[in-house]
Design brief:
By secondary structure, this protein is mainly beta. The chain has one helix at residues 104-107; strands at 6-9, 12-13, 19-20, 25-30, 33-35, 41-43, 49-58, 61-68, 74-78, 83-84, 91-93, 96-101. The longest helix is centred in the C-terminal third of the chain and has 4 residues, at 104-107.
């Protein structure tokens, strides 16, 4: 088996006009699942707001290194093809998908105003 070199990039393109650069806050969907012996799938993906650090590739393996928005942990988000885990037999490494960037107004739940909230009531 040929050894592939690790390539590190400081940006990740997740759409035709969308790019993550270091320091960008973002959300993801998808992620790995565990399949039990009776066929039930259990999601084991990380959720929340992440801060982009870098994008790495090594052969066919592709992942994003990020940390939680509160700075508590470094997270490795798989973005390559779906494969079986070589270490855990029933784990399926499904890719994460970047949903989009998060700004300060949408980061906290309940902060957004609905369009009808600004209507003035006549008295």
């Amino acid at each position: 088996m040929a050894s592939h070199n690790l390539q590190v990039f400081d940006q990740y393109r997740y759409g035709p006009r969308s790019v993550l650069v270091p320091g960008d806050r973002f959300r993801v969907s998808g992620g790995p699942v565990y399949v039990t012996d009776d066929g039930k799938t259990i999601p084991v993906a990380d959720r929340g707001i992440f801060v982009f650090r870098r994008y790495c590739t090594q052969g066919a393996a592709k992942w994003i290194e990020a940390h939680r928005s509160d700075g508590s942990a470094l997270i490795v988000l798989w973005v390559g093809k779906t494969i079986r885990s070589p270490v855990i037999p029933n784990l399926r490494r499904r890719p994460y998908r970047v949903v989009g960037k998060v700004n300060a107004a949408t980061a906290e739940p309940g902060r957004r105003k609905s369009p009808g909230a600004r209507k003035c009531a006549k008295s």
